[in-house]
Amino acid sequence: MGVTKTGRTYIRPASPKTKAWQKLVEAACCDLTPLQPPYEVNIVFRFTSPQKPSRKYPSRNDIDKLARTVCDGLVNGEIIEDDRHIIRLSAQKEYGTEGAVITVRSLSD
Fold first, then answer.
1. How would you class 73 by CB atoms within 10 Å of its CB: exposed for 0-12, middle for 13-18, buried for 19 or more?
2. What is the value of pTM for the model shown?
3. Degrees to nearest 5, angle at CA 70 with 58 and 53
């Protein structure tokens, strides 16, 4: 978290790649119909396996920061109104073809 000269706080990006990920999510939302809150979001992040993995699962990248970036992209892509309306969030990391599978569902009646 950072603080501006005027004393306002803000969250620093997790990595320089955050903006690029966010823009990809925004672009994927461009032809979709906005959903009504509340929301359920499921995300599967896939990472290319290293030639000699030290673990059987991907351990690079914080899953919470990855999910935050996706949620911000969904808001900026105008598919959801605000990420504070997400009441169910599921995220997982696995080895596979690099990318992400994102499912967003409105839970409104």
1. buried
2. 0.83
3. 10
| Residues 108 and 36 sit within 8 Å (Cβ to Cβ) | yes
pLDDT at 37 over 90: yes
Per-residue model confidence (pLDDT) at position 11: 62
| Type of residue at 27 | A
- Say if residues 59 and 109 touch (Cβ distance below 8 Å): no
pLDDT level of residue 14 (50, 70, 90 thresholds):
low
Q: What separation in angstroms does the CA of 25 have from each of 11, 53, 100?
A: 19, 28, 9
Domain 17-106 carries which CATH code? 3.30.1330.70
Distance CA 28, CA 51 (A): 30
Spatial distance between the Cα atoms of 58 and 81, rounded to a whole number of angstroms = 31
**Phi and psi torsions of 9, nearest 5°:** -95, 155
- Structural domain boundaries of the chain? 17-106
